[in-house]
Structure formats: structure tokens, C-alpha cells
Amino acid sequence: MTPRPWLSARNRRDIGILVVLSLLLTLALPSPPASAGANLVANGGLEAMGGDGFPVCWERSGWGDSPYTFDVTTQAHTGTKAMQITLAQTAPGDRKAMMLEDASCAPTVTPGHQYDLGVWYTTTTPNTVMTVFRHDVAQGWVYWTDLATLPVTTSYQHQVVRTPQVPPGTDQIVWGVTIYGAGTLRTDDYTMEDVTQPAPGTTACTAGTACTKGVWQVMPFNTPVRAIHAVVLHNGDVLLVAGSGNNLDDFAAGTFKTAVYRPSTGTFTDVPTPADLFCAGHVQLADGRVLVMGGNKDYPSADGTVGYKGLPDSFVFDPATNSYSRVNNMTAGSWYPSATVLGNGDVISLGGLNENSSGMVATQYFDASQERWLGLNEANQTWSFWGLYPSMILMQDGRLFYTGSHVFGNGLPGTGASIYNYDANTITPVSGLQNKDERDQSMSVLLPPAQDQRVLTMGGGNIDTNPDANRLTDLIDLKQAAPVYTAGPLLPTGAGQTPSQGKMYVSAVLLPDGKVFETGGALHNRADPVYEASMFDPVTNTFTAGMATDPVPRGYHSSAFLLPDGRVMAVGNNPGDGTFDMRVSVYSPPYLFQGARPQILSMPDNTWAYGSANTITVDGPVLKAELIRPAAVTHSSDPNQRFVDLPMTVTGTTISLNLTSNPNLAPPGWYMLFVVGANGVPSVAKWVKVG
User: In the chain, what are the helix, strand and coil shares in percent, each to the nearest 5?
Assistant: First the structure.
């Protein structure tokens, strides 16, 4: 179909009426059967109203000089509201009521799938068409097609049209009805169903295997930097830090790289990088800036007698300016340091290698109010070595739990896990961790919700002895007076693996439905990728195997993390031959195919005090609400990842969300606020500043 050349991309429509009518002969469908699939349209009945007096998730759109009116009328097909457009004359231009081009409102789609789009309408002009736009992950929102011309009718008629197969690189679509001739158009009760692989007799998801496994999409572009580190910023962008990127030539040339990725447009912004931040530590501060500590002072000597050396430099990255600024140096060089934010907003960093390539034994403490690292004599010291990237999780009483997850070689002496009390300068061993010397690049997460104080540690290997990576998981309840690890369920095995083989380089992501998505990994040191993914349910302590798998290998120097739209992004892979995979993958979990997203209609305040009740309005019933701290991940390590439950007081569609009074459960900073609808589908996150 050929759009008018004088139309903008946002407002193109078909004038090839004969072409459209022939399309209708093959695409028009009767009313949906009783076993219809999930309706993917948010506010399809138009009953929820926004502050602008127009239905939520819909916008007034169009162009041209012809006089027009947009109205919300009570002459509805069902309910009490319908959208009405009146165009005074036929002239160049059009008007349309369209879905918002917004991650929360635009239905998620799968390339190659087809969808039935349905609407009830009346129109007094034959110049009425159904218009569709798609979100291309590389180009942004673009015109897709006009699907059907709607016949004139003065009583409500139902039109259902099937889309062509969704083109590659498309993750969402929006659509609506366009009027481009003098007359009045009225629409109501929009529906959209995935009809690619209908499940017989189902009344829910009809998206085939995506209903239970989710689906991955490899983006049609590469990252401009080696994504060693990934941080989700409070504006929705993603900070990707390479430094020299494990590339000795770049180190010698002083070529250090950082980029900011904007998921909404698929674009990258290069950021000048002041030092080799390869294998630094990083954590988000209370104001949303990112504290980056340490990095790479030097690569190992050619004869192998001297190893990597830690950099003492430290910087703060500001998302508002996409730039680094220097703070004072750490008290010692740090390569592979931990970074844990405390309930008062300060940061403790432990472990790593110092400037002489020896184990760094100082406790390094960043005072957020002074914006500086304290001197050695100002911070409490145990002079203990914690390994490289030790996973140090903040407990509800302010102590730190060393989970036993670390990087490179064997675990620490003793039980391999412990509780560290900074104030008292004590370290208490924790027993029960299985095969503590084979938890190299395992991953540990504080399970949802943080209030339960349960930690799951999964997988791991040992780059020194290089055995097959294991399937072990361990669970611990930190609320107990003397916590002890207990064996958890085995990790599911990947294709071609023996029953004893698992994975190291594990990624684990907390999802807004309360589950943990486990993905990526390899069987051996920088070799033999494992294509396996599973879903862990903290309620039942079980894994669901056989989730969709990332087609890109994700081993050493890979990361996976939650985006504010509820999807999971994966980057990186650095096998033993020194290459680096620059591809980006995005996973849409099964919940994105179960129906329309719930909408957070209003949130009067996005700065929440501890112990406060905070009111939001939503468009329908919700099951739960939570805050999820955005990721700051590298090397299977993100000890600050947490899911904070928000107990609800519900009055219709007005909900009061109760934030914990304990800052150790939700350290100050920016969080993603999700609500989960009765269909199990999460909203797109709103950003909330805690503390």
C-alpha cells in the first residue's frame, strides 16, 4: 500500500482503497470465539480516564487544517465511555485516536507472530481506516500499515482484522482508527490477541511457547563497547562500562570506553572515560549517581610472575550529564572490589587485588554525606581478605552476609561464608555451604521479598582446577539467630549436559512477579557455554526448567539485568580466545503475553520517606506492589539487587503503599515501582526515590 507522500510517518494512511478491500477479503474475521486469548490492549474499554480528560493509554493524534473535535462520549458500545472524533470537512490531513507510543501502553509483540485487532465502531464517512505503527528496536516508532477500511454504519459494528507477520526487530505495536473525510467516528472496546499458535480451549494466553517459556530477541545492533559492567540508571538508560575491556592493546593505547544505552530508541552515547575502569566496583548512591571504585592499574607481566594490579582511583558517574567526576582515591588499589550500600547511604568495599597484585585486606568506607573515602584510620578494620568480588549482602540489622559467591579460584578459608559486623569488627562463620571451593562465579541473590531475608546461591566452578561447573544451590534464612545454609534444589541442566554438570558465570535476575530468572553461563573456565535458563519460585523453592534460552553464549564477562519495562537485557561474553561478543539480547518473560498491563494512573509523590504510606491510583485490581533496586552488575555479582514488598491498603482503584521504616531493607536511592495485575502481568515501572 502506498501512503500519501505529503503525510508524516506518524500520520500516514492508505488511499489504495481497492488494495485495502482485497486485503479485507482475506483478513477480516468474525467475532472472536468464546475461547478468546488474552486481550493485550491496556484500557481497551476506555473506561479509565487520565488527567487530561482522555482515556488512559490513548492520545489525540493527527494533522491538517480541517476543523475537528475529540470527545469522550457516553454513547458507548459497553460501559459508559467511547471515543468520538468529528472532522468538519474533507481536506489534506486526518485525525485518529491512537494508543500511546509508551512502553506501558503499547502491547508487546513477537516477530513472526500475527495478531487479531478488534474494535467496535460507528462512522458516517467511508474515509475511515485502521492504522498500525510498530516499534523498531533500531529505528524507534515507525509507520507499519493500514489494515482495513471500515464501512459506514450508524450502529455499532465489530471489525476484526489479522495483521501480517510482525517484522523482525519489532517488540511493540500501537494502533487505532483514523478518519480522513468529513464525518463522525466513534470507537469502543478495543481488543488484540495473539493468534499465531492458539492453545485449544484456553481462555488465557494464546502466544504459543512464549506463554510458558518467554522469548528472546537478539537486537539488530551491537554495543560500541565491551560491556564488562552494566548499571541501570534511574532515567531508564543503561550504563555500560568497558575500560580497556580485557584488551591489552587498548590498555597500552590508553583507550578506555564507556557508553550509555537508551532502550527506548536503541541508541548509544559514548562517554569519555578517565581511567581504566575494567573490573572496577560500582554501586548506586542515594541521589541516583553511580560510585565507581578501583579498576585496572596494570595487566599481568608477560612471564606471569606478577598479576593484575588494582587502581586506587574513584569516580562518580552522573546520569544527568553522562559524565564522570573524580572523588578522592581509595585507601588502597582495588581490582575486583565488592561494593555494598548501607542503610545510611554509605558504601563499604571489601576484597580485590591491591596495587601490588596482592589481596586487598583493608575495609574501605565511602562516607556519602562527605562524598569521600575515609582514611584507613577513620574506618573500622579487620585486615581480612575477602577474595575477589565477594558477594556482600546487607542484612536487615545492618550487618553484611558474605554468601560464598566470589570470583577466581578457591573460596576463603573455613566454611566459605560468614557474617561481617562492621560496627563491632567481628566476623562470624556460617556453615552449610556446599563445595565452597567450587563457587567461583556462582551468583547469590536476596530472594523476594527482602523482608523474608532469604538468600539463594547457585552454581559455580573453579578456574584453577577447572572441574565441570556444578548444579548446586544453597538457601539460608538470615532471620535465624544462627543462620545456616541448607541445600536447595539442583540447577536444571542444559542441552547435552550430563546429570552432574551445571554452570558458572551464572546470571540471576529478580522479576516483578516475585520470581528469579536464571540464565547464561558456561561449563568451564571461559569455555563451553551452557544454553539453559530456568525460573526459580521462592514460594515453592523450585526451579521451572526449559525457559527460552538466549541464542548468544553468555559466559565470562556477561551480565543480565531487569529493565523498567519488565524485560531482561543480556550483554557480554569473553571466551578464552580473547574475543568479545558485542551482541545485545532482550528476554520477554511469560508474563508479558498474559494480557494487558496494569496502569499506574497517578503517583502524587515520587520521593518516599521511610515508614510512609504513599498513594497511587491504578486502572484495575492488582495483586501486589514492590520496589526493585536497579541493577549494578558485573561478573555474576550484584549484591545490592533487592525486591522490597509494599503492603497495600486498597480502596477501589486507590492504593496506599506502605514503605518499610527500616533503611537496611531498602537502602536509600532510586527504585523501580511495579504493580502486578490480577492476570499476573506487571506494569511498566515508575521511578521512586527512597529516603
Answer: 5, 40, 55
- The 8-class DSSP code of residue 108 comes to B
Strands 559-562 and 542-544, by their bridges, are unpaired
Count the neighbouring beta carbons within 10 Å of the beta carbon of residue 75.
13
Report the pLDDT value the prediction gives residue 36, as an integer from 0 to 100. Answer: 56
355: left (phi over 0), alpha (psi -120 to 50) or beta: alpha
Residue 22 has pLDDT above 60, yes or no: no
What is the Cα Rg of the chain in Å? 27
Residue spans of beta strands (DSSP E) within 437-594:
443-446, 454-458, 473-477, 486-487, 507-510, 516-519, 522-524, 527-529, 533-537, 542-544, 559-562, 568-571, 583-588
Residue 10, classified by CB atoms within 10 Å of its CB into exposed (0-12), middle (13-18) or buried (19+), is middle
- AA identity, residue 2: T
Cβ neighbours around 80 below 10 Å, total: 12
Instruction: Work out the number of other CB atoms within 10 angstroms of the CB of residue 272.
Output: 10
Residue type, 477: D
The per-residue pLDDT for 197 is 53
573, with CB counted inside 10 A (0-12, 13-18, 19+), is: buried
**Listed residue (400, 397, 454) closest to 427, CA to CA:** 400
Q: What is the 3-state secondary structure (H, E, C) of 614-644?
A: EEEEECCCEEEEEEECCCEEECCECCCCCEE
Q: CA nearest 346: which of 323, 334, 363, 324?
A: 363
From residue 379, how far is each of 336, 366, 374, 427, 648 by CA, in Å? 20, 9, 6, 16, 40
The pLDDT tens digits of the residues spanning 496-552 come to: 999 999 999 999 999 999 999 999 999 999 999 999 999 999 999 999 999 999 999
Average pLDDT score over residue span 407-430: 96
Single out the residue of 104, 116, 95, 107 nearest to residue 187, CA to CA.
95
Query: Which cell numbers hold the place of 303?
Result: 612471564
Report how far Cα 104 is from the mean position of its chain's Cα atoms.
13
User: What are the two backbone dihedrals, phi and then psi, of residue 249, each rounded to the nearest 5 degrees?
Assistant: -65, -45
Omega prior to 449 cis, within 30 of 0: yes
| Dist CA 256 CA 272 (whole Å) | 8
Is the pLDDT at 203 greater than 80, yes or no?
A: no
CA dihedral (508, 511, 514, 520) positive or negative: negative
Q: What is the pTM of this model?
A: 0.85
Strands 686-690 and 607-608, how do they pair? parallel
pLDDT tens for 230-246 read 999 999 999 999 999 99
